[in-house]
Design brief:
The chain is α+β, with helices and mostly antiparallel strands. It contains one helix and three strands; from the N terminus they run E-E-E-H.
């Protein structure tokens, strides 16, 4: 089991997502639900490719937090 931070952003007419710990692993979707499904599948495929290439799986290091600015 792997756990990676995923950033989801609203664009003009769709959503995009990426994982800072997996450079180049990105996805888009017309809805938030669709982009979540697409990035999940993209991460699965990315990890499978790394395993097939006998490359190491990056250890997650990215973190996110909301800050309150007054």
């Amino acid at each position: 089991m792997y756990r990676f931070l995923v950033v989801i952003e609203k664009a003009n007419k769709n959503y995009s997502a990426y994982s800072p710990d997996l450079p180049g692993c990105v996805a888009t979707g017309e809805t938030r639900e669709k982009v979540e499904q697409n990035i999940y599948e993209a991460i699965e495929m990315h990890i499978q490719g790394l395993l097939e290439d006998r490359s190491s799986i990056p250890k997650p290091h990215a973190a996110a937090e909301y800050l309150v600015i007054k």
